Amino acid sequence: MKIISIGDSTMQPNPAGTWPQTGWIQELPRFLAHDVHIRNFARNARSSKSFIAEGRFAEALSFAEAGDFLFVQFGHNDEKAADPERYTDPDGAYKDNLRFFAEEARKKHCLPVFFTPISRRLFLCEQSASGNGTVNDTSSSKDGMNFGSETICGTILNSHAPYQRAMIECAEELNVPCVDMTQRSAEVIAAFGPEKSRLLFMNFDADMYENFPESRNDNTHLRPMGAHYMSRCAAEGLKELAQSGKFPEYQPLFAALR
Asked: How far is 164 from 170, CA to CA, in rounded Å?
């Protein structure tokens, strides 16, 4: 059995030259049986649109066989409205692309699983302090799916709400299992709090890493600890889906969880 993963930089495999950046799929084997093989095709800066246009999905699907599973996570770069090569409307091309991924996988008897995009490390207090308090605040939006993940400092802002909602809706329409990584990851980040949550992301002081001698304030990409916790979110979400009894055909995947 194989897992074929497609997505963006939060999922992608990272070589030694980009250490400590780590895609969450890189940590997933810790939660799976040893005989499960992962082929990770996720790549930096890709959206669902550009992943298809560049032929990356066709390449990934060429390795799929009956009984395999396709893990899909896009959203971070689909949101980039100023970039026509990557932007997708959440209720238009984004849903169309998700349907395409699922339908093409099923043609090869490969079963799709959707994962909503992981949350960014965006605390309300930090955004307010920098003068950006309303930039990503979706609390009053019709697309807002608010977590209520509060800390002593405030709330985690949901920058992915329209895409989180669209993926969940598309999964229900297609009867595809969906793990809401947006909510699960936000709860993890909130639990760590504003300072300790920096350990999860590429957010660190200068001279900590040879590959990145200068300080970084990256609240999107993960370090190994962050990848571990996000992988655990994925595994726990899959276990809940297994317990629901709604997807019996996915039993081989569920049985491989540790």
From this structure: 10
Over the range 163-173, which residues count as b (16 or more CB within 10 Å of their CB) and which as e? bbbbbbebbee
Q: What is the pLDDT of residues 98-141, one digit of tens each?
A: 999 999 999 999 999 999 999 999 987 665 444 443 333 333 23
Find, among 73, 78, 77, 66, the residue nearest to 113 by Cα. Answer: 73
Over residues 8-65, the pLDDT tens digits come to 999 999 999 999 999 999 999 999 999 999 999 999 999 999 999 999 999 999 999 9
Contact 224, 20 (CB under 8 A): yes
Q: Which residue shows structure tokens 């209520």?
A: 148
Q: How many helices (H) and strands (E) does the chain have?
A: 8, 7
What CA–CA distance (Å, rounded) separates 8 from 3? 16
pTM for this model (two decimals): 0.89
| Closest to 114 (Cα-Cα) out of 60, 51, 168 | 168
Q: Is 110 buried (19+), middle (13-18) or exposed (0-12) by CB count in 10 A?
A: buried
